[in-house]
Amino acid sequence: MLTLIDHDQGTFISSYDPDGHLLSGVQTNGSNSRTPGYNYDLLGRLGCEQTAAPTISWNGACSAGSTLLQNTYDTTFPGIQGSTDFPIGHLTQSVATTYFPDSTSAIVTQQVQTDQRGRTVAAKMQLGLLSAWNVSTSLPIYQIAQSYNDADLPTTSLTSGRG
Asked: Among the four 25, 134, 136, 157, which has the fewest Cβ within 10 Å?
């Protein structure tokens, strides 16, 4: 689909890369216009969602506008690569940003650790709030540790709400 005309939502015009991945989708409704853009790495994995059409890069990095979502693959964050973390081929970090009309923003960061079979063994999520929200105590870092049996069935899950 290249163009969609919706009489309530406006006109949507999409562009794609040679591999068929959505690059940008312009939404026009009267005098309002939005152009979310998407950038992918060489393996076709979403690297960035941003508020403008992207400049294509090999690693899917954000290149224009404000970053809405930045994904990182193959990089060790919570473990020691090759010893307690085997990140190759896996999403290891995702940072999502929400922008508010008053020019402030909030951030959610998620990190994942995998074992040799590619199963998630540890994950953590941290929320970054606006100081204007007057939250006096910092929010916890949410964590989970997971173990599996030989049939790849979860056997133990430990969760916590502190860093």
From this structure: 136
At 132 the three-state DSSP class reads: helix
Q: For residue 17, what are its two tokens?
A: 């890369």
**79 within a domain of the structure (yes/no):** yes
Q: How many domains does the chain have?
A: 1
Q: Is residue 84 part of a domain?
A: yes
Cα angle value 66/12/96 (rounded, 5°): 30
Structural domain boundaries enclosing 87: 74-160
53-72 pLDDT, tens digit each: 888 888 999 998 999 999 99
Q: How far apart are CA 127 and CA 95, in angstroms?
A: 10
pLDDT digits (tens, 9 = 90+) for 113-138: 999 999 999 999 998 877 777 777 77
Contact at 8 Å (CB) between 97 and 105? yes
